[in-house]
């Protein structure tokens, strides 16, 4: 709904009602971790000083 309050002059007040937040039980759940296999020989440590967005343009 909307209300006009002439006493506010040029001001606007907004009330937000948010819903749909997860319950505390869901928030407290531990995130699951999974192992990732990768080839350690393919890692190039020479490029680490270059930001990722520049490295990936090569």
TrEMBL record:
GO terms for molecular function: GTP binding. Keywords: GTP-binding, Nucleotide-binding. InterPro entries: Tubulin/FtsZ-like_C (IPR037103). This is Cell division protein FtsZ C-terminal domain-containing protein.
